[in-house]
Specification:
Elements (H helix, E strand, L loop, with lengths): L2 H27 L7 H17 L4 H24 L5 H20 L3 E3 L8 H4 L5 H23 L3 H11 L1 H6 L4 H27 L1 E3 L6 H16 L4 H23 L2 E2 L2 E2 L5 H24 L1
Helix pairs in contact: 1-6, 1-9, 1-10, 1-11, 2-3, 2-4, 2-9, 3-4, 3-9, 6-11, 7-9, 10-11, 10-12, 11-12
Length: 295
């Protein structure tokens, strides 16, 4: 694996790390299996791309993307809490609907951003090379989101989200409306995923309706890898582990795609197979480690 491939993997790990933090919020904290992210990531990309092509400041489009993803997550949570639809089915219904909505927003399957302003322009004007500008921008956004989430979960509302996922009966007895908390939490999760999608679209120079396929698999793999390697003994460490897991996952993918074993090599089409193998290794490693320690 070349140095440029490693830098590219770290860059992708940082920007998709924002998505992983959103996935961690629903799956680990709220205990809410949410497949909406496969649709909310391209939703954020579509909103940002269309807004940029209409002359809106690229930084402002990130807020639009965040809001669009928040609304998508709210719909999933409302279907679950108010209409009593199973959370997995509710998220699948929203994800399916978002496919058509994203095409409507872009007036087609994709939108090109060639020659349009992006969030990377300000960094490039400072004389920083192109292959480092994305790394710097994504690093700043990832660290900012991680820090804000750690701070937020220390607030009263954040503690209510933690308690709702851990013991909903207890928090209900204290007078907290768990439905409202779930709606806000799932909305926030998908807002972060859409923010990640908007940054990815500006970096790639295009938004595509199919760019969210496999997002939830990559997010879960990153969460599991991060917990296995770094542990999750506290909220701060859990979010840092999620971000680190995203980077390790992308590095592992880049390494697997660039290595040959006796004439055999993985192709980009084998990405799902590689992801499945990584998740299997991450899930079985703690048990193997525990057995070895017991012996």
């Amino acid at each position: 694996m070349t140095i440029y491939a490693a830098l590219g993997a770290v860059e992708q790990g940082l920007v998709y790390g924002i998505m992983v933090i959103g996935v961690y919020l629903t799956f680990r904290i709220l205990d809410f299996p949410d497949l909406t992210v496969d649709g909310s990531l391209p939703l954020g990309a579509a909103i940002s791309a269309v807004a940029i092509t209409h002359g809106i400041n690229p930084y402002l489009t990130l807020l639009f993307a965040l809001g669009g993803g928040f609304c998508a997550g709210m719909i999933t949570a409302i279907l679950n809490t108010k209409f009593k639809i199973l959370h997995l089915l509710a998220s699948i219904l929203t994800m399916i609907a978002l496919y058509s909505i994203n095409i409507r927003i872009m007036a087609g399957p994709n939108v090109a951003l060639l020659g349009t302003p992006t969030v990377f322009d300000a960094v490039s004007e400072l004389g920083i090379p192109m292959h480092l500008s994305g790394l710097l921008v994504f690093g700043c956004f990832a660290l900012l989101v991680t820090g804000l989430m750690i701070w937020f979960l220390g607030t009263e509302l954040g503690q209510a989200i933690l308690a709702t996922g851990d013991n909903p009966q207890m928090i209900t007895s204290l007078g907290v409306n768990t439905h409202t908390i779930i709606i806000f939490g799932v909305g926030l999760s998908n807002g972060l995923v859409a923010l990640s999608g908007a940054l990815v679209a500006q970096n790639q120079g295009a938004a595509d309706v199919g760019m969210g396929i496999g997002t939830i698999v990559a997010g879960l793999a990153s969460v599991i890898i991060g917990e296995t390697v770094c542990g999750a003994t506290s909220i701060a460490r859990a979010f840092i582990a999620a971000l680190a897991g995203s980077i390790l996952y992308r590095l592992a993918i880049a390494f697997a795609l660039g290595v040959e074993w006796g004439g055999f090599s993985f192709n980009p089409s084998d990405l799902n197979l590689i992801t499945a193998l990584l998740v299997i290794v991450a899930l079985t490693t703690p048990n193997l480690k525990r057995r070895l320690l017991q012996r």
